[in-house]
Description:
Radius of gyration of chain A: 16 Å
Strand order of the largest sheet of chain A: 2-1-5-4-3-7-8
Helix content of chain A: 25-40%
Distance between the termini of chain B: 63 Å
Mean pLDDT of chain A: 86
Structural class of chain A: alpha+beta
Shape of chain B: elongated
Oligomer: heterodimer
Strand order of the largest sheet of chain B: 1-2-3-9-6
Number of helices of chain A: 8
Strand content of chain B: 15-25%
Shape of chain A: globular
Mean pLDDT of chain B: 76
Helix content of chain B: 40-55%
Low-confidence stretches of chain B: 1-26, 290-308, 380-387, 416-425, 448-456, 588-594
Number of strands of chain B: 24
Largest sheet of chain A: 7 strands, mixed
Strand content of chain A: 15-25%
Number of strands of chain A: 9
Order of helices and strands of chain A: HHEEEHHEHEHEEEHHE
Radius of gyration of chain B: 31 Å
Largest interface: A-B, 48 and 39 residues
Amino acid sequence: MKTAIRHRSALLALVLGLGAALAHAAPKVGEPAPAFSAVDSNGRSVKLTDFAGRTVVLEWTNHGCPYVQKWYQGGMQALQKASTGKGAVWLTVLSSAPGTQGHVDGPTANLMMKEQGAAPTHYLLDPEGRVGRAYGAQVTPHMYVIAPDGRLAYAGGIDSIASADVDDIAKAEPLARLAIDAVLAGRPVAKAQTRPYGCSVKYAN
Amino acid sequence: MPPHITAFFRPLLVTLLSLLPSLAPAAESAPSTTPRATVSLLSASDALAPGQTVELGLHFRFQPGWHIYWMNPGDAGQAPRIEVFAPAGSTVGDLRWPAPERHVDGPITTFVHQGDVLLPFPLTLPATLSGPTTLSVKASWLVCKDICIPEEGVFRLELPAGAAVPGSDAPLFEAARAAAPVRTDWQVSVDAAGQLTLRGAGAGALRSADFFPADWGRIEHGAAQTLTVEGDVARIALVPGAEFDAARPLEGVLRATGADGVERALWLSTADQPVTRLPVVTLAAGDALPPSGVPAPLAQSPATGETGGLWPLLFAFAGGLLLNLMPCVFPVLAIKALSFARAGGGESSRVRQQSLAYCAGVVLSFVALAGLLLALRAAGSQAGWGFQFQSPVFVAAMATLLFAIGLNLSGVFDVGGRLASAGSGLAERGGLAGSFFTGVLAVVVATPCTAPFMGGAIAAALSAPAIVTVGIFVALGLGMALPYLLLAFFPALARRMPKPGAWMERLKQALAFPMYGAAAWLVWVLSQQSGADGVLHVLVALLLVALAAWLAGSAQRGAPRACLWRAAAVLTLVVAALAVGRTPAPQPVAAASADGTYSPQRLADLRASGKPVFVNMTAAWCVTCLMNEKVALSTAEVQAAFAARGIVYLKGDWTRADPDITAFLQSHGRDGVPLYVYYPAGGQPVLLPQILTPGVVLAHLEPQP
């Protein structure tokens, strides 16, 4: 039923010529995840298709954002290690445009990761916001999980309590962790589309 | 206290005490001020009656571009949260949100409040209530412009018992009520495609409509909305969002322009029953905020570890004690030493009286400073310790005053006569009044040096109610006056004071030179603030003061027609005062992008790039800061250590008020310079003491890799 509604709404949007809706054409959960390629912090080109058949986690970041800082006091690093340890690919994506908060170059990103003990598979540099816009990433941290079949299995918040207070992590429902674990175990994700919270992604205007 | 002392101080005390109530406005809390916003708690009525429902409100005044978020923040952001501490049995209602504004930033659309915003909410008091009531509110909000900063504030309102008459802020609440979204009597429905249909009188006359959903994700926040009208029906095509469900109620605010071209905010709901949401305003357990509930500074220095109970007072006392050892107090020590020498000749009871007078001078000056701080705080100014030395007029006046004291010590003119136009005369006057004003002067000159422990005490004072602030400043004053008091009450020490004699005059003349030195230093400070024009102003003023002193001295030495000489002296002084009063305002600070200059962005960038950073917050008027730079930071030893570890040295100059530096100081629980913070690569920031030696600095740097 929900899918039907979405199809009809998409049709309506097209019929009415609501071009603006295309700017918000975030991929829907259950549909194929948009393909992308980007350069990582070591200068290597990374494509989504490189990881066909594996579980891929996308994490939008901006080290200046208090909500990201809340999670980089240990929580994000632990989730990265736990997920990659179980076979997932973790891609941290930085879509801050040059001159905006959080924008760094590859070497700086590597230094920062070392300093923080972060352990993503790749740290993708997306200064033009192409990957971010393709996924409709709105906030940092915005989380996506792509199932081994290439379909988007989760889009939304890192957890259920929208705050910048690190003490809330323990009280919140760990939405992203639950989704990652479910996809890794081949189970359906109970809450596949949730509310992301955080700072706006600092796209180029 | 002997009766004649009481008689002398009573008028002063009465005056100061009468000022206190006006420092704590009845219906507005002390504001929380950051470079982004000024926030305070208001009450619509100036008094509280049992069982009454009173309208409270958080009043935000934002700097341009900064905003907070509506109940549904949109694609990013977060709505504020408010926790109310009220007498047991009270109940609160939720916020009566004003209509939001749409904020589009590329592909991200948020719903925000900016400019001047009141967020009102009702509080119903229990039927049993007596006496004045203290209401505390703890609020947290996310304020954003290009970047987002979570902020927190604690606000206290003390309201007397009485009839619930509208207070002075009632018009603000009235205006908020008038602008609040109005519930329509239109029939509202939404279909599965996300089309919102409004039926009713006037709906067909809508010219434009912008719908803000009350709940997140029900529609695409940033998608275009298309309005079509037909008869008495308006249809708005919305794009369903991630949480869209036509079977659930859709509610929100419609900014709509009718046939008259006027935009109104309407509240639309497809539900017959009110929809319940998680409240933004909650009642806290307990009726008062515990002292430890005061938000702790981001980084704790040992001095600010405790903010509750007696600790701020103890720290303030210790800080005051240490102030005696600060270089800033040095010029005044000259006067104090002189007073000691004089007092030493008298009887011990006289010494005691004088020390009490000095103590009173110090303490009352601190009370006056507390009053000033409270007044500035109330005015929304970012008052910090040393604040007054950021005013060029104040610096020029102090330079002139110290120069005049020097002239007096040099013997150009005598005081005790009628020329009591300046504090110098007062400070140098013998007897109790002289001791009293010596105490006043000691406080004024000590201001820019923040002794260790003081930062925490003042930070607590800034966030505390008026009466606690006054208490802290009294403790500071007592600490500063204690050594003098001890000497007076332990005659064994006092008797070691030298006997009066001819040496006193020579000593007095010698002491003029520290005064000239201090004046010269202040002229240099002014040159940093107001440039060459400022220096010209103050030099002209000094010249005129010297002329006035010579004229007055001539009259005192029996020149014929003394009254003419005196009149000329007074006239010259008036011109000097005018010159001081017209000291040019600070020049705008040059863009702070130069290498080695502190800016929050620069610090963040350096930290992000993994470089260790040493931050030095200083000001030209802070002698402690300059001494530390001279004896520790600029030594070859320390410089070599910085270079070996790749430490980037950032310096923030607070000579002129700089909101970024004020914010940095406050984030470390301080309200004055010096402040030294070392950020190791990837480690927690380390606060250094306020008095540095090369050894102290090296001990705080991590071992060389």
